[in-house]
Amino acid sequence: MYQKPGTVKVANLHKKFVAKGKEVPVLEDINLSVSPGEFVSVIGQSGCGKTTFLRLLASLETDYSGEILVDGKKINGPSLNRGVVFQDHRLLPWLTVEKNIGLGLKKLNGKDKKKIIQEHIDLVGLNGFENAHPSQLSGGMSQRAAIARALVNRPEILLLDEPLGALDALTRMYMHKEIERIWKAEAITMIMVTHDVEEAIYLSDKIVIMSSRPGTIRKIVPVQLPRPRDRASYDFQKLKDEVLAEFHLDADKLFSYAI
Protein backbone atom coordinates (compact mmCIF):
# COMPACT_ATOMS: atom_id res chain seq x y z
CA MET A 1 0.00 0.00 0.00
CA TYR A 2 1.38 3.41 -1.03
CA GLN A 3 2.42 5.72 1.78
CA LYS A 4 3.05 9.41 1.26
CA PRO A 5 6.76 10.33 1.68
CA GLY A 6 7.67 11.11 5.27
CA THR A 7 5.25 8.64 6.86
CA VAL A 8 6.54 6.74 9.90
CA LYS A 9 4.85 3.85 11.66
CA VAL A 10 6.29 2.03 14.67
CA ALA A 11 4.49 -1.11 15.84
CA ASN A 12 5.14 -3.29 18.91
CA LEU A 13 8.74 -2.09 19.20
CA HIS A 14 10.87 -3.69 21.91
CA LYS A 15 14.57 -3.09 22.55
CA LYS A 16 16.95 -4.71 25.04
CA PHE A 17 20.60 -4.30 25.88
CA VAL A 18 22.81 -6.96 27.43
CA ALA A 19 24.82 -5.84 30.47
CA LYS A 20 27.02 -8.23 32.46
CA GLY A 21 25.30 -11.19 30.86
CA LYS A 22 21.79 -9.97 31.74
CA GLU A 23 19.14 -8.54 29.44
CA VAL A 24 18.09 -5.02 30.31
CA PRO A 25 14.83 -3.84 28.70
CA VAL A 26 15.10 -0.30 27.33
CA LEU A 27 11.94 0.10 25.24
CA GLU A 28 8.70 -1.86 25.57
CA ASP A 29 5.74 -2.03 23.21
CA ILE A 30 6.23 1.29 21.43
CA ASN A 31 3.45 2.11 18.96
CA LEU A 32 3.50 5.42 17.11
CA SER A 33 2.31 6.89 13.82
CA VAL A 34 3.80 10.07 12.35
CA SER A 35 2.15 11.78 9.39
CA PRO A 36 4.07 13.38 6.49
CA GLY A 37 5.26 16.87 7.37
CA GLU A 38 4.41 16.47 11.05
CA PHE A 39 6.70 17.80 13.80
CA VAL A 40 6.83 15.34 16.71
CA SER A 41 8.81 15.71 19.93
CA VAL A 42 9.73 12.80 22.19
CA ILE A 43 10.32 13.76 25.82
CA GLY A 44 11.02 11.87 29.01
CA GLN A 45 13.34 11.59 31.96
CA SER A 46 17.02 10.70 31.46
CA GLY A 47 17.47 7.01 30.75
CA CYS A 48 13.94 6.41 29.46
CA GLY A 49 15.22 5.28 26.05
CA LYS A 50 14.25 8.29 23.93
CA THR A 51 17.67 8.61 22.28
CA THR A 52 17.76 4.87 21.69
CA PHE A 53 14.36 5.20 20.00
CA LEU A 54 15.72 7.90 17.69
CA ARG A 55 18.79 5.80 16.90
CA LEU A 56 16.50 2.94 15.93
CA LEU A 57 14.59 5.24 13.57
CA ALA A 58 17.93 6.25 12.02
CA SER A 59 19.07 2.59 11.85
CA LEU A 60 22.11 3.43 13.99
CA GLU A 61 20.80 0.63 16.22
CA THR A 62 19.45 -2.43 14.44
CA ASP A 63 18.84 -5.08 17.11
CA TYR A 64 15.15 -4.86 18.06
CA SER A 65 11.85 -6.65 17.75
CA GLY A 66 8.73 -5.20 16.20
CA GLU A 67 8.37 -3.04 13.11
CA ILE A 68 9.67 0.34 12.00
CA LEU A 69 8.15 1.36 8.68
CA VAL A 70 9.00 4.44 6.62
CA ASP A 71 6.64 5.11 3.73
CA GLY A 72 5.16 1.66 4.30
CA LYS A 73 8.49 -0.19 3.98
CA LYS A 74 10.60 -1.76 6.72
CA ILE A 75 13.82 0.19 7.25
CA ASN A 76 16.99 -1.64 6.35
CA GLY A 77 20.02 0.34 7.45
CA PRO A 78 20.82 4.07 7.33
CA SER A 79 19.40 6.03 4.43
CA LEU A 80 19.76 9.48 2.90
CA ASN A 81 15.97 9.71 3.26
CA ARG A 82 16.52 10.07 7.02
CA GLY A 83 18.80 12.93 8.01
CA VAL A 84 20.18 13.09 11.56
CA VAL A 85 21.27 16.06 13.69
CA PHE A 86 22.98 15.39 17.03
CA GLN A 87 23.51 17.57 20.12
CA ASP A 88 27.17 17.83 19.10
CA HIS A 89 27.24 19.35 15.61
CA ARG A 90 30.00 16.92 14.51
CA LEU A 91 31.32 19.26 11.82
CA LEU A 92 34.78 18.31 10.58
CA PRO A 93 37.07 21.02 11.99
CA TRP A 94 39.46 21.07 9.02
CA LEU A 95 36.69 21.74 6.49
CA THR A 96 34.87 25.00 5.77
CA VAL A 97 31.13 25.40 6.24
CA GLU A 98 30.62 24.96 2.51
CA LYS A 99 32.63 21.73 2.39
CA ASN A 100 31.03 20.33 5.55
CA ILE A 101 27.56 20.86 4.09
CA GLY A 102 28.58 19.31 0.78
CA LEU A 103 30.02 16.12 2.29
CA GLY A 104 26.97 14.04 1.41
CA LEU A 105 26.80 15.19 -2.22
CA LYS A 106 29.43 12.79 -3.51
CA LYS A 107 27.51 11.99 -6.69
CA LEU A 108 27.32 15.63 -7.72
CA ASN A 109 30.04 18.01 -8.79
CA GLY A 110 30.53 21.37 -10.41
CA LYS A 111 27.76 23.94 -10.69
CA ASP A 112 24.92 21.65 -9.54
CA LYS A 113 26.70 20.78 -6.30
CA LYS A 114 27.67 24.37 -5.57
CA LYS A 115 24.11 25.55 -6.27
CA ILE A 116 22.55 23.04 -3.86
CA ILE A 117 25.09 23.84 -1.14
CA GLN A 118 24.46 27.57 -1.50
CA GLU A 119 20.69 27.02 -1.35
CA HIS A 120 21.12 25.28 2.01
CA ILE A 121 23.54 27.90 3.31
CA ASP A 122 20.85 30.46 2.45
CA LEU A 123 18.17 28.28 4.08
CA VAL A 124 19.94 28.25 7.46
CA GLY A 125 21.07 31.87 7.29
CA LEU A 126 24.83 31.36 7.05
CA ASN A 127 25.42 33.63 4.06
CA GLY A 128 28.90 35.08 4.26
CA PHE A 129 30.26 32.17 6.32
CA GLU A 130 30.79 29.75 3.43
CA ASN A 131 34.56 29.74 3.95
CA ALA A 132 34.56 29.84 7.75
CA HIS A 133 35.77 26.85 9.77
CA PRO A 134 33.75 25.42 12.70
CA SER A 135 36.09 27.05 15.23
CA GLN A 136 35.02 30.44 13.85
CA LEU A 137 31.30 29.78 14.40
CA SER A 138 29.10 30.22 17.47
CA GLY A 139 27.23 27.22 18.87
CA GLY A 140 24.00 28.20 17.18
CA MET A 141 25.73 28.77 13.83
CA SER A 142 27.42 25.37 14.08
CA GLN A 143 24.06 23.70 14.65
CA ARG A 144 22.58 25.53 11.68
CA ALA A 145 25.44 24.21 9.55
CA ALA A 146 24.77 20.70 10.88
CA ILE A 147 21.07 21.06 9.98
CA ALA A 148 22.01 22.22 6.46
CA ARG A 149 24.32 19.21 6.08
CA ALA A 150 21.50 16.87 7.15
CA LEU A 151 19.05 18.50 4.71
CA VAL A 152 21.30 18.81 1.68
CA ASN A 153 20.28 15.38 0.32
CA ARG A 154 16.58 16.32 0.55
CA PRO A 155 15.58 13.70 3.16
CA GLU A 156 11.93 12.91 3.79
CA ILE A 157 12.53 12.83 7.55
CA LEU A 158 14.86 14.80 9.82
CA LEU A 159 15.73 13.21 13.17
CA LEU A 160 17.03 15.58 15.85
CA ASP A 161 18.67 14.27 19.02
CA GLU A 162 18.57 17.15 21.54
CA PRO A 163 20.06 19.46 18.89
CA LEU A 164 19.95 22.55 21.13
CA GLY A 165 20.94 20.96 24.43
CA ALA A 166 24.40 22.57 24.54
CA LEU A 167 23.23 26.11 23.76
CA ASP A 168 22.49 28.95 26.16
CA ALA A 169 18.87 29.93 26.81
CA LEU A 170 18.75 32.98 24.52
CA THR A 171 20.38 31.13 21.61
CA ARG A 172 17.97 28.23 22.12
CA MET A 173 14.96 30.54 21.82
CA TYR A 174 16.36 32.01 18.61
CA MET A 175 17.03 28.52 17.24
CA HIS A 176 13.45 27.46 18.00
CA LYS A 177 12.30 30.08 15.51
CA GLU A 178 14.95 29.02 13.02
CA ILE A 179 14.03 25.33 13.23
CA GLU A 180 10.35 26.16 12.80
CA ARG A 181 11.17 28.34 9.78
CA ILE A 182 13.32 25.60 8.21
CA TRP A 183 10.66 22.96 8.90
CA LYS A 184 8.02 25.06 7.15
CA ALA A 185 10.33 25.85 4.23
CA GLU A 186 11.33 22.23 3.66
CA ALA A 187 7.88 20.75 4.44
CA ILE A 188 9.41 17.53 5.80
CA THR A 189 8.70 15.30 8.76
CA MET A 190 10.73 16.15 11.87
CA ILE A 191 11.09 13.96 14.96
CA MET A 192 13.01 15.53 17.84
CA VAL A 193 14.19 14.14 21.15
CA THR A 194 14.35 16.79 23.87
CA HIS A 195 14.22 17.13 27.65
CA ASP A 196 12.84 20.68 27.36
CA VAL A 197 9.04 20.76 27.72
CA GLU A 198 8.74 24.37 26.55
CA GLU A 199 10.82 23.59 23.46
CA ALA A 200 8.56 20.65 22.64
CA ILE A 201 5.39 22.74 22.97
CA TYR A 202 6.80 25.61 20.91
CA LEU A 203 7.80 23.39 17.97
CA SER A 204 5.57 20.33 17.91
CA ASP A 205 2.32 19.19 16.39
CA LYS A 206 2.27 16.47 19.04
CA ILE A 207 4.38 15.46 22.01
CA VAL A 208 5.19 11.85 22.87
CA ILE A 209 5.74 11.50 26.63
CA MET A 210 7.79 8.47 27.61
CA SER A 211 7.74 6.72 30.97
CA SER A 212 10.84 5.83 32.94
CA ARG A 213 12.86 2.79 31.89
CA PRO A 214 11.87 0.53 30.39
CA GLY A 215 10.50 3.25 28.15
CA THR A 216 6.91 3.04 27.06
CA ILE A 217 4.67 5.72 25.60
CA ARG A 218 2.92 7.17 28.61
CA LYS A 219 0.83 9.68 26.69
CA ILE A 220 0.61 11.45 23.33
CA VAL A 221 -0.37 15.10 23.67
CA PRO A 222 -1.57 17.02 20.59
CA VAL A 223 -0.41 20.64 20.42
CA GLN A 224 -3.17 22.63 18.76
CA LEU A 225 -1.90 26.13 19.55
CA PRO A 226 -1.73 28.59 16.65
CA ARG A 227 1.68 29.41 15.16
CA PRO A 228 3.79 31.38 15.86
CA ARG A 229 3.36 30.37 19.48
CA ASP A 230 3.36 32.73 22.42
CA ARG A 231 5.20 31.29 25.41
CA ALA A 232 3.50 33.79 27.72
CA SER A 233 -0.06 32.91 26.69
CA TYR A 234 -2.48 31.20 29.05
CA ASP A 235 -3.01 28.26 26.68
CA PHE A 236 0.73 27.69 26.30
CA GLN A 237 1.28 27.68 30.07
CA LYS A 238 -1.77 25.46 30.63
CA LEU A 239 -0.41 22.86 28.21
CA LYS A 240 3.04 23.11 29.82
CA ASP A 241 1.48 22.36 33.22
CA GLU A 242 -0.39 19.39 31.73
CA VAL A 243 2.80 17.89 30.28
CA LEU A 244 4.82 18.54 33.46
CA ALA A 245 2.09 16.83 35.51
CA GLU A 246 2.83 13.61 33.60
CA PHE A 247 6.44 13.82 34.76
CA HIS A 248 5.33 14.29 38.37
CA LEU A 249 3.12 11.21 38.09
CA ASP A 250 6.05 9.22 36.78
CA ALA A 251 8.31 10.49 39.58
CA ASP A 252 5.66 9.58 42.18
CA LYS A 253 5.49 6.08 40.70
CA LEU A 254 9.26 5.66 40.92
CA PHE A 255 9.28 6.93 44.51
CA SER A 256 6.53 4.51 45.55
CA TYR A 257 8.59 1.64 44.13
CA ALA A 258 11.66 2.83 46.04
CA ILE A 259 9.87 2.69 49.41
Automatic annotation (TrEMBL):
The keyword Transport applies. InterPro entries: AAA+_ATPase (IPR003593), ABC_transporter-like_ATP-bd (IPR003439), ABC_transporter-like_CS (IPR017871), ABC_transporter_ATP-bind (IPR050166), P-loop_NTPase (IPR027417). Residues 8-237 form the ABC transporter domain. The keyword Isomerase does not apply. Pfam families: ABC_tran. Keywords: ATP-binding, Nucleotide-binding, Transport. One of its GO terms (molecular function) is ATP hydrolysis activity. It comes from the Bacteria. This is ABC transporter related protein. The lineage of its organism: Bacteria, Pseudomonadati, Thermodesulfobacteriota, Desulfuromonadia, Geobacterales.
